[in-house]
């Protein structure tokens, strides 16, 4: 499977059109995919009628306790219909799916590192509080949407483009033209390391 491809680095580099740089980028991307939120993990399991929103509802029902969720899976004919918004159809789909795929579920779960959204305490003196911010690039800590939500909860004001009214540009990997614009306008630019510190209350 793809999570063991790092055992075949030299074989991959020997393939036509593949070099050290291409293989390294691919393996890095695969490694990053190991860190995921549990609802996203469940939604990716191709369980019939269980999309991301339903997976979030399921996890919330168990207070996001992964052990409790796995225990429910392991119970024969668990009553998933007790979850708000779940009916007998999805209950049958989940139980049938688990009977046929339990080895895959447990194996993939063992390879992953699961993260969860943590509530952020709003502090009036936080450097993002009351500031307009824009985000560009990719980040290892989460999607731009997730980062936006975290910063808005700290009092930041999200904007989608860089203008002279923008206070802060948050830059990840592969930043685009927004970075050039921010430099031209002398806007404060912070990287992912600073962003991590801000989200952890260090500034």
How would you describe the overall organization of this protein?
There is one protein chain. The chain is of the alpha/beta class. The chain starts with 8 loop residues before the first helix and ends with a helix. β3, α7 and β4 form a beta-alpha-beta unit. The chain is flat, with a radius of gyration of 21 Å. It has a four-stranded parallel β-sheet with strand order 4-3-5-6, with helices on both faces. The longest helix is centred in the middle third of the chain and has 24 residues.
Concise summary:
This protein is of the alpha/beta class and 203 residues long. It is built from nine helices and six strands. The protein has helices at 9-13, 20-32, 38-43, 52-61, 66-74, 88-111, 144-153, 177-184, 192-199, and strands spanning 35-37, 113-115, 132-136, 157-158, 168-171, 188-190.
Order of helices and strands: HHEHHHHEEHEEHEH
- In angstroms, what separates the terminal alpha carbons? 42 Å
Low-confidence spans: none
Estimate the helix proportion, in percent. Answer: 40-55%
Query: What structural class results from the helix and strand content?
Result: alpha/beta
Keywords, separated by commas or semicolons:
203 residues, alpha/beta, four-stranded parallel β-sheet, two-stranded parallel sheet, 9 helices, flat
Q: Topology, please?
A:
Blueprint: H1 9-13, H2 20-32, E1 35-37, H3 38-43, H4 52-61, H5 66-74, H6 88-111, E2 113-115, E3 132-136, H7 144-153, E4 157-158, E5 168-171, H8 177-184, E6 188-190, H9 192-199
Parallel strand pairs: 1-2, 3-4, 3-5, 5-6
């Amino acid at each position: 499977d793809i999570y063991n491809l790092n055992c075949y680095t030299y074989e991959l580099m020997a393939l036509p059109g593949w070099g050290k740089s291409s293989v390294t980028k691919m393996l890095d991307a695969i490694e990053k995919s190991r860190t995921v939120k549990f609802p996203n993990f469940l939604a990716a399991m191709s369980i019939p009628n269980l999309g991301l929103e339903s997976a979030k509802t399921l996890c919330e029902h168990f207070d996001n306790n992964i052990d409790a969720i796995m225990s429910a899976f392991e119970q024969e004919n668990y009553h998933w219909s007790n979850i708000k918004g779940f009916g007998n159809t999805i209950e049958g789909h989940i139980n049938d799916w688990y009977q046929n795929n339990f080895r895959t579920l447990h194996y993939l779960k063992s390879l992953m590192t699961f993260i969860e959204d943590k509530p952020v305490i709003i502090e009036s003196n936080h450097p993002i509080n009351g500031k307009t911010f824009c985000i560009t690039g990719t980040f290892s800590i989460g999607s731009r949407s997730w980062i936006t939500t975290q910063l808005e909860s700290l009092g930041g004001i999200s904007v989608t483009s860089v203008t002279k009214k923008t206070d802060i540009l948050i830059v990840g990997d592969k930043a685009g033209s927004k970075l050039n614009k921010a430099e031209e306008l002398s806007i404060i630019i912070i990287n992912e390391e600073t962003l991590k510190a801000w989200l952890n209350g260090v500034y």
